[in-house]
Every structure is written in structure tokens, then in C-alpha cells.
Amino acid sequence: MRLQRYYEVSQAQDLAGFHKSLVDFAAEIDFGLFSAILVVESPLEKKAPVFHAISNTPQAFMEAARDKGAIARDPVVKRMKTLSLPFTYDRDVYISGNAEDLWEEQAAFGYKVGIGVALHLPNHQHFLLSVDREAPLPISGEKLSRLMADLQLLAVHAQAAATRLMLPLIQSPIPQLSSRELEILRWTKAGKTAWEIGQIVSLSESGVNYHLRSILMKLDAINKHQAVLRALNIGLLDP
């Protein structure tokens, strides 16, 4: 029963089980390859995105020499960044994107046609899921629509498991700030000086600076401005 397959994906107990459930689901809808990627951005701090991926990519393809700019040129990756609905791709998509050479390289390993979907989540997180195969996609609009609907629902279940199992591997634990520290950080975000904050919260200026030093240490920040940015990035402060 297909519903049970969705639950097997979302309720996977570990990464090995998550991987197996996605392999099984992809095979059930006649796709031999899958890729699932969780991406976390830090736009406020202008850091490079971090990600964790699982897939059953052929080892030979992983070892093949690739153009260093392949990911940036890949039209499927470009679509993943902006689209939130499932989309199909094949050789024509790569040709229209001036990247036929990338399709030729991938096709040798079974990546000839596929369906992809991206979920753009709060806190600058993104979940990307795709399935690929060599056989052409169904000509029947009804069958193709069914496949795309299956993948979209699968992405929702897979994202739940990915957030639970993969996010801790790429994200440092959220620091625990005291209520006083959060209060001081909020006023710092509002542009108040240590003296002004002290007047507001009934602390001496030195007392405020003591708490600020603790905040910097907990957030691994070099100054109060970076501390505010990091607190915003990890959701400790509202934008």
C-alpha cells in the first residue's frame, strides 16, 4: 500500500533506514536513482550554505572527473532554487540551458530523465528531492501527473525525516541564553547602548556588559553586532 511507503519514509529511525525507504519508494514508482539534500543558508552572516545529502548515486559517477562549475551551470539545480512545484527534466532541458554536455556526462550513468521538487522552508532551509532513470517518462498526462503528485507528497514526508535526522549533523546546537541575556540582546538589536539597556532593565552598565560577554561566548561572536546576526539566523530573535 503506497500510504505505508510514505510513513516508512517519514518515520525512518536512522539514516540507513531513511536511505532504504527512499530507494524502495523510488523503485516502486519505477525510478532507479534518487537524491535528497537538506540545505541550510546563513544569508545574514553571508556564510556559504551547508548541506547534507543522501542518494544512491553510482560510485563510478561520483568518482568521475567533473567540471568544477557543473553545479552552478546545471539547469535542474537552477530550477530547484526557485520552483516549489514538481518539474520534469530531460535532455531538452539541458540543451535549452546550454548544458547539453552535462546531460551527456550524466546520461552514461543512468541520469537521462527525472522529476525534481524543492521545499523552501523557514529559517533559510531547503529540501531538494529528485528521482532519475533511463526510461522515458510516461506520455500519458494522467500518469505523469500521478508521478509528480507522488513525488511532491514523498518530498513532504522525506523532509520531515531529513529535518529530524540530517539537520543535527549540519547545524550546531542552539545556544541556551537566559531570559536576561535574551532581553539584553533584544535591546542591543534595537540599537541601545549598554548604558541605555541598563536604565531600561535596572542594571548597571557593567552588569549589562557582563551579560553581553556571556552572550558573545555562547554565540561564538566577536562583537555584539555579530551576536545579533547569529541570534537572528538561528531563530533566537525575531527579525
Compact overview of the structure:
This protein is an alpha+beta fold and 239 residues long. 53% of the residues lie in helices and 17% in strands.
SSE layout and pairing:
Elements: H1 2-10, H2 15-28, E1 33-42, E2 47-55, H3 59-63, H4 70-73, H5 75-82, E3 87-89, H6 91-96, H7 100-107, E4 113-121, E5 125-133, H8 141-165, H9 167-170, H10 179-189, H11 194-201, H12 205-219, H13 224-233
Antiparallel strand pairs: 1-2, 1-5, 3-4, 4-5
Helix pairs in contact: 1-2, 1-8, 10-12, 10-13, 11-12, 12-13
Q: How would you describe the overall organization of this protein?
A:
With 239 residues, this protein is an alpha+beta fold. The chain folds into two domains: 2-170, Transcription factor LuxR-like, autoinducer-binding domain (Beta-Lactamase, 2-Layer Sandwich), CATH 3.30.450.80; 179-233, Winged helix-like DNA-binding domain superfamily/Winged helix DNA-binding domain (Arc Repressor Mutant, subunit A), CATH 1.10.10. Helix content is 53%, strand content 17%. It is built from 13 helices and five strands. It has helices at residues 2-10, 15-28, 59-63, 70-73, 75-82, 91-96, 100-107, 141-165, 167-170, 179-189, 194-201, 205-219, 224-233, and strands spanning 33-42, 47-55, 87-89, 113-121, 125-133. Strands 2-1-5-4-3 form a five-stranded antiparallel sheet, sandwiched between helices. Helix 1 (2-10) runs antiparallel to helix 2 (15-28), helix 11 (194-201) packs across helix 12 (205-219) and helix 12 (205-219) packs across helix 13. It is elongated. The two termini are 44 Å apart.
